[in-house]
């Protein structure tokens, strides 16, 4: 007679890894069967088999000892295979990490080169813009000085003339206008003062 158990249960029962169980199945030392898409280990439950999962149980003491040694040898072999598989996986991961690191270093170098090229182009553009501005300024004709004429009232406000002094200064401005002072002119019957000229003499 025989029974079916899952690989995980078999591994737990014999204190081995699942990888070791699948390795034994692959080598053909452990019988397996697929039922409805699931893999099971076939265990012989015949009375003559003292050790579950073995082809036959030894009847003699010496033969039993040999069977046990063979069983543990299989376990050790399975564990060695598991260790080798893990070591191979670790090497693959190391190689993959080195490749990724190399790719990243290459990307960083490309970014540095692109940034340097952009910096050079931007610098050249700025220098060209400065030259254009200088040429434009040199080519621009000088504007004539704009004269600004203000009323006496605004003149007092601009120069901070106090009210008690305004009458005296206003009289002085009118007298200067009658004497032909070119800093003054009549506009809409009001005297206007050219504040772009030196007008300090009016308030001194």
How would you characterize the overall build of this protein?
- By secondary structure, the protein is of the alpha+beta class.
- The chain has 2 domains: 88 residues, no CATH class; 55 residues.
- The chain contains 6 helices and 6 strands.
- The strands form 2 sheets. It has a 3-stranded antiparallel sheet with strand order 1-3-2. Strands 4-6-5 form a 3-stranded antiparallel sheet.
- The radius of gyration is 53 Å and the shape is rod-shaped.
- The termini are far apart.
Strand-residue proportion: 5-15%
Computed Rg: 53 Å
The count of domains is: 2
Characterize the overall form.
rod-shaped
Characterize the largest beta sheet: strand count, sense, and whether it forms a barrel: 3 strands, antiparallel
In whole angstroms, how far apart are the ends?
Answer: 132 Å
Helical region count?
Answer: 6
What are the segments in which pLDDT stays under 50 over at least 5 consecutive residues?
50-61
> How are the strands of the biggest sheet laid out side by side?
1-3-2
Number of strands: 6
State the share of residues found in helices, binned by percent: 55-70%
What features would you highlight for this structure?
6 strands; 2 domains; three-stranded antiparallel beta sheet; alpha+beta; rod-shaped; about 200 residues
Structure, briefly:
With 204 residues, the protein is an alpha+beta fold. Helices cover 61% and strands 13% of the residues. It has helices spanning 7-13, 18-27, 61-139, 152-159, 163-178, 200-203, and strands at residues 2-5, 32-35, 38-44, 149-151, 184-187, 190-194.
């Amino acid at each position: 007679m025989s029974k079916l158990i899952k690989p995980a249960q078999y591994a737990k029962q014999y204190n081995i890894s699942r990888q070791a169980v699948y390795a034994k199945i692959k080598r053909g030392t452990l019988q397996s069967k697929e039922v409805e898409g699931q893999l099971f280990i076939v265990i012989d439950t015949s009375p003559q088999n003292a050790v579950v999962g073995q082809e036959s149980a030894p009847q003699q003491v010496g033969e039993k000892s040999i069977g046990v040694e063979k069983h543990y040898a299989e376990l050790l072999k399975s564990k060695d295979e598991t260790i080798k598989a893990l070591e191979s996986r670790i090497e693959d991961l190391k190689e993959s990490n080195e490749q990724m690191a190399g790719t990243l270093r290459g990307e960083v170098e490309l970014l540095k080169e692109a940034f340097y090229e952009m910096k050079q182009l931007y610098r050249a553009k700025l220098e060209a813009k400065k030259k254009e501005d200088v040429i434009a300024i040199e080519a621009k004709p000088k504007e004539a000085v704009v004269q600004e004429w203000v009323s006496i009232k605004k003149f007092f406000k601009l120069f901070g003339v106090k009210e008690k002094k305004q009458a005296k200064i206003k009289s002085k401005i009118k007298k200067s206008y009658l004497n032909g002072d070119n800093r003054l002119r009549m506009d809409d019957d009001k005297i206007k003062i050219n504040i772009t000229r030196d007008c300090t003499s009016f308030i001194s």
